Amino acid sequence: MCGFVGYVNQTDVQDDVIVNMANRIRHRGPDDEAFFRDENVSMGFRRLSIIDLAHGRQPMYNQDQTKVLTFNGEIYNYQEIRKELQDLGYEFKTDVDSEVLIHGYDAWGPELLQKTRGMYAFAIYDKATNEVFMARDHFGIKPLYYYDDGKTFLWASEIKGFLDHPNFVKEFNEELLPIHLSFEFIPSKETMFKNVYKVMPGQYLIHKNGKTEVHQYYKFNYDEIDNSQTVEEDAQKIREIVRESVGSHMVADVEVGSFLSSGVDSSYVFNEASKIKQDDIQSFTLGYDRSKYSEIDWAHDFAEGIGQKNTPIKIDADDYFGILPTIMYYMDEPMSNPSAMQLYFLSKGTREHVKVALSGEGADEFFGGYNTYLEAGPFERYQKFVPGFIRKGLAGAVKNMPRFHGKRFLTRGAQPLSERYYRVNYVYDYNEREKILKNKSLNVDTGAYTKHIFDEVKDKDEMTQMQYFDINTWLPFDILQKADRMSMANSLEVRTPLVDREVAKFAATMPIKTRIQGTTTKVSLRKAAQAELPEKVAQKEKLGFPSPVAQWMKEPKFKKMIEDAFTSDVAKKFFDTDALLEIFQEHLNGKSSMQKIFTIYTFILWYQIYFPEDCENDIRDQIQYNEVKAHQGE
């Protein structure tokens, strides 16, 4: 696990720029650093050593030294690809997976990506053709960004890696503010910085002669659904696939641990890991002193029940609110998912014991775990049997009525799924944004912004469309992004066995009846887990990542912090501050979502950190500065 940076050379850039850029992401790889420069390209690398600790230094070269690689991630089937390359005559100097990539690209070019299984982002510079090739893994587990304004071309594992390049123009992409307020992330290649783009999951990019071409080498789809499959059959297949995937994800020359909550996903992964290792394996759980929000006791009992160790990691309100500015720095873009902060502390505590940890992300998206998927059936029946003009009439009639049971269903029943699915207005809807945005002209239809994703599976049932949308947006841009940033902020490698090419290949065949039944989500996964775990764990309701943040906000100390932010110069720049305070008061009175408050608050912190020149109150001293400086090597 590592981090890298690079750029196409320009005459006015000093040699130390690439070093400063790499230092900016030192937290991703504190074990080693190295650089490559020629007249065309500069590349920098930071290494976190996991496999073949004594070797594998990057940048790495092919046999004739014409290609140069920097790589972040793990290739879980690298031994298979290595054997294939050896049969072709390639010689290997190390036992690291990065050498497989450089020789594999030399042998097959972009077709190499059809063979890889893993989490990765990498860049290869070809001296002979003077082109840069970059690729990101199938599901976006590892990040990869590029800056392209038509004159300057840069790339990096994290956006902050661009900050030290003199030709990087740091500019806030204000047009995306309403999109962020709706989704809590940007569900496209765009970012909150102008001219900074994501290489999307399953894509590779070629930059040559000032031109950038982007290609899609993989796209998850549901074209192989097999309606003949049964829950029993799918559960048995899941048992086989999960065991194999967990085993593949445990290959390392350092100790591997596991995150553990009270839910079925992490419990299942940890249990499988303990069987495969056939030895002690540590697990780590985050919690609070207030047992209502804490999973520590549950996790401890489960680990003890299978003869393994669990280490509790506790935080309080001061920890949580104190770390927020630092979190916004590490996230690159504003992130209002409250669990990001919990993941930070969980990763920090875990890193004190191990260098690699398994996690259970992906199960809900691939196997149908979110309760919102249960809405699909009732809405489909309503739309099938009630004509559209009647549904629209009912929606209009109840719109201005006081809240009553069924009002939300009738209102949403007149909308297409691309507008109705709650992720499209996850935090703020159009009318709520209209109320708080200072520049009303920025407000857009967020449903239109992502409609093309639903259109890609418009021939599928609504639940499948929801899952497809989540796999292509929520999973890479929220779940996996915060997992990567918060773990790498602490130099911890997190591996996700349930976000895997082989797991996804099978999940794409599952019919609805083996994903949900009645009010039960993840029905096949739960049945698979039930054969391996206690029933109370396998059937436990999804909690997400519970926290007392909503209650903490009401405490005087933190209430004042939020009110100060809501009346700050940043708030005045972008929002109607009276409207913000009104929403906050509604929350204090128990009538408004905590998420609405948190989304605005974290955005303001993020802006103050990345655009301090626009702020009267510079909060950079609030970022735990010694820690950040240590990570940056400044």
Explain the overall architecture.
This protein is an alpha+beta fold. It has 4 domains: 2-216, Aminohydrolase, N-terminal nucleophile (Ntn) domain (Glutamine Phosphoribosylpyrophosphate, subunit 1, domain 1); 231-369 and 471-539, Rossmann fold, CATH 3.40.50; 372-461, no CATH class; 548-622, no CATH class. The chain is 41% helix and 14% strand. The strands form 3 sheets. The chain has a 6-stranded antiparallel β-sheet with strand order 2-3-1-9-8-10, with helices on one face. The protein has a 6-stranded antiparallel β-sheet with strand order 4-5-6-7-11-12, covered by helices on one side. A 5-stranded parallel β-sheet has the order 15-14-13-16-17, sandwiched between helices. A hairpin with a 4-residue loop joins strand 8 and strand 9 (153-156). Helix 5 (231-248) crosses helix 20 (523-530) and helix 9 (339-351) packs parallel to helix 18. The chain is globular and about 75 Å long. The two termini are 22 Å apart. 49% of the residues are buried. It holds the Pfam family GATase_7. This is asparagine synthase (glutamine-hydrolyzing). ATP binds at residues 359-360.
CATH C-level label of the largest domain = Alpha Beta
Mean pLDDT: 91
CATH structural fold name of the largest domain: Glutamine Phosphoribosylpyrophosphate, subunit 1, domain 1
Largest pleated sheet: 6 strands, antiparallel
CATH superfamily (homologous) name of the largest domain: Aminohydrolase, N-terminal nucleophile (Ntn) domain
Q: In the CATH hierarchy, what is the architecture of the largest domain at level 2?
A: 4-Layer Sandwich
What structural class do you assign from the helix and strand content? alpha+beta
Outline, from the CA principal axes? Answer: globular
